[in-house]
Amino acid sequence: MCADTVNEPLLEHIILALRNGNCRAQGIFEQVISRNEVFGERLNAYSQWQPGNALASAIAIDHALAARREPGLFAGIPVSAKDLFGLDGFQTFAGSPTALPAEWCAEGPVVSALKSAGAAFMGKTNMVEFAFGGIGTNPHWEIPRNPWDRKTYRVSGGSSSGAGVSICEGTAFVALGSDTAGSVRVPASWTGTVGLKTTKNRWSTDGLVPLSTSLDTPGTLTRNVSDAIVAFSIIDPGTTETFDKVLTKMRTRRISGLRIGVCKAMFDGCDPGVAESVAAALILLEKAGAIVTDLEVPAINEAEEIFERGGLAAPEFAALINHTFADWKATLDPNVLARFEKIEAIPAIDYISRRSRLLELASDVDTIFNDVDILVGPTVPITAPTVQEVAVPEEYFRLNMAALRNTSVVNLLDLCALSLPAGRDAFGIPIGFQVIARKNADEELLAISLACESVIGVSKDILGTPPLLA
Questions:
Q1: 75: which of 9, 18, 104, 378 lies 20 to 30 Å off by Cα?
Q2: Residue 183 annotated to the active site
Q3: CATH architecture of 2-469
Q4: Residue of 47, 57, 156, 159 with catalytic role
Q5: Percent of the chain having pLDDT more than 70?
Q6: What is the mean pLDDT of the chain?
Q7: In the predicted model, is pLDDT for residue 7 greater than 90?
Q8: What's the confidence (pLDDT) of residue 339?
Q9: Catalytic site residue 159?
Q10: Catalytic-residue membership of 160
Q11: What is 415-466 written as a DSSP string?
Q12: 222: enclosing H helix or E strand
C-alpha cells in the first residue's frame, strides 16, 4: 500500500488509507526519503532537503491516528516548496547565490494553510533565479533534469523547475510553485504533471519573493487533477467544505454538452507531436459529447505581442531588483543581465499604456466565455530543450519566449488555467493540454479539468513511467 502510494500519490486514497489503518505515515515518509536517496543527485529537484522534521511528525501522526485523534487532513502528505516561499527552518534564496534577508523566510497564508492541515515540507525546490524565465536553468544551482529523457540532459521547465521533478520522483505529493507567465504550467507540461494557475489574488502572495506584483500567482503541481482538487480545498480561503465533499461535487461535471473553444493560434509553430496529441485529446472529448469550436481570439494574439515587448513582469522585475535587491544585481544570471538594461529602460508611459490595454483585452476575452465554457490549446508549443541547446544565449532567448507563449497570455488577461498531460511528443517528452477558464471560475476550471482527465486519461495511463525513474 505505501509503496503504491509513493509511486502514484493519490491524496484522497492516502488520507483514507491512513485513517482506516491500511497505511502508516512513517512508512510513507521513509519511502519518500529513500526515493530522494536514489534520485536526488540524479535529478536535482531540491536546493534544500530537510526530511528530519517530516519523519518525526510522521511518528506523531501515527500515534494520533491510533488514539483516534485527528492530526489534520493533510497529515502524512509530503510537500515541496519552490525556493521563493518563506518556510520556517529554511533560508530563502529565490534561486540567487546568496540568501535573502530573514524577512523573506516568513511564512505566508498558502504555506500556513497546508501546515495547519498537517502537511510536512520535505524541502525547497530549485528554481530560475528570481523566477525570471521559463526554461528552468540557473547558473548558481544544479539544474533539475527532466526525467523523461534517459540519454539527453533536458530541462524540466521554469521557473518552478524543481517542482514538477519532485512530483515525478515521488519525493513530494504536492509541490508549491508560483506562476507569473507560466512558471507552474510549463514545468507541469514538460514533466507530465498537473499544474494549476489560480485567478490572480485568489491566493495571497504574502510570504513569496515577488517577480511581478501585477501577475504573480501561487499554484500547485500534482500527479493528477484529483490531487489538485484536494490541495485546492486545503489552501483556498474561499472553500469551506472538506475535500471529499468538494471532490464529490466536482465529479458530477460531465463532458457531454461542454462547450470547448479551441485557440487556433496556440497551435502555430508546434514541435512534432505537440499539436497532434492535443488534437487527438480534443477528438476524444468530442466523441464523449463535448461541443468543439475553433476560435480566433484577437485579444490573445495582442496579449502575446505585449508579452514579447516585456509585458508587465519585465519592468516590474527591473524595479524590484533596483529598489529591493540591488545587492543581488551584480550576480544575476547572465541570461537576465543581458536583457536588464533593455527592460529597465521601458518608459513609464509604455508600461501604463500596456496595463490599460490589457484591461480592455481582458474584458474582451471575458465575453467569449458567454459562448464557451473553456478555451484550450497546447500548454507549451515546443519540446523541452536540452541543457546544451539553451547554453547558447540566442537560443535561450528564442526558446524561452516560445515556451511561455501560450501560458503568458493567461496571466496578462487575468484568467485561470490548468495544464494536464495529453501524451508525449516526438522526443518522448510529455505534452500539456491547457484548460483556460474565465476570471474567478477556479472551481469550474477544476471540475471541467477533472472531467477532461477522465476522458483523456491520467498521467500514468497516457505517459507511462519516466525512463529515468524506471
A1: 104
A2: yes
A3: Alpha-Beta Complex (3.90)
A4: 159
A5: 98
A6: 96
A7: no
A8: 84
A9: yes
A10: no
A11: -EEEEEEEEE-TTS-EEEEEEEE-TT-HHHHHHHHHHHHHHH--HHHHH---
A12: strand 217-222
